[in-house]
Specification:
Dodecin subunit-like, 54% strand, 17% helix, 3 strands
């Protein structure tokens, strides 16, 4: 078994519908430019409020991916 190194980044996803969709948007957007995604951890949930109404759900996600040197 070889040794592996993983990098962890912070992302914030948003959605007008739900926190779950916000987190999914963050991971799916990151997957377009990052390889070997491993673990996504939701670390904070919040909402954007305008005129007393929730307009966006936001999820802060820690995402790890395999660090590869070439």
């Amino acid at each position: 078994m070889s040794d592996s190194v993983y990098k962890i980044i912070d992302l914030v996803g948003s959605s007008p519908n739900s926190w779950e969709e916000a987190a999914k948007n963050a991971v799916e957007t990151a997957s377009k430019s990052l390889r070997d995604l491993r673990i996504a951890e939701i670390v904070k949930l919040d909402m954007k409020v305008e005129n007393g109404k929730v307009t966006d759900y936001r999820a802060r996600v820690k995402l790890s991916f395999k660090y590869v040197t070439e």
